[in-house]
Amino acid sequence: MNKPKKNRTTSPSRIKQEQRRAELALQKKRTRLLLIGSTLLVVVIFAALFVLATKNTDNPGGAANPVSFNYDELPRLGKADAPVKLVEFGDYKCPACARFSIVMKPLLVQEYIETGKAALYFVNMSFLGPDSKTASLAALSVYHQNNEAFWTYYDALYANQGNEDTVWATEDFLVELAQSANLPIDYDLLRKDIQNRTYAGELNRDNAIAKTNDVRSTPTLYINGIKADNIFNLSAVSAQIESAAKAAGTE
């Protein structure tokens, strides 16, 4: 005769022990995942900081790597011994450059250039069209005839700027503009320089300076070799100029 099987049941204490073991195992797993995640986050943060530090060190124009310009070979507005040197990269066909010339430059001239604290220099970055180069060649011709006339011509070019999408900076236009501005130069020589591309070498040099220093847009402004972040924010530019003047040992 078969004996009936006993009904085996788990005691409440055993159930609690199993639950406790499961909870401990789950807690260990969560702790392990948290540690792994924290470690990965720390690694990512340090990697990002390393990349940022490297970028700031390697990129020209950063505080750790200011650009060195040969100021003597550039058109200059202001005193040669001014402690703060502003270098603008510009294209005469660039609408934003025209805005800088009309809006920002007069403020910088009044506040810093006329007071002797800063001088403004110009580097051509002619990339918007073939007549960008023609305009630059004309401006370089004016510069080599008369540095003061260069800045009058600079203003006239931007004040009379044509549409960015059209070819407006032609030889005739550029010579006539110089005549309209009554520049104290030889207009026949200006025309000859444009035709012969007399200063093509200097224009290539300027564009090479832009490329070497990773200048990607116009206008771009450097203040004692350090790139300005927002050149249409007068407060920001002024703060950087004052900081540069202080670093140069002037008030």
UniProtKB/TrEMBL annotation:
Q: Where is the Thioredoxin-like fold domain?
A: 76-242
Q: Which residues form the signal peptide?
A: none
UniProt superkingdom? Bacteria
- Entry's Gene Ontology molecular function annotations: isomerase activity
Q: Which residues cross the membrane?
A: 33-53
UniProtKB keywords? Disulfide bond, Isomerase, Membrane, Oxidoreductase, Redox-active center, Signal, Transmembrane, Transmembrane helix
Keyword Calcium assigned to the entry: answer is no
Under the heading Pfam families, the entry gives: Thioredoxin_4
The UniProt entry's coiled-coil ranges are none
**What family is this protein classified in?**
Belongs to the thioredoxin family. DsbA subfamily.
**What's the protein here called?**
Protein-disulfide isomerase
In its UniProt entry, the species of origin is given as Paenibacillus forsythiae
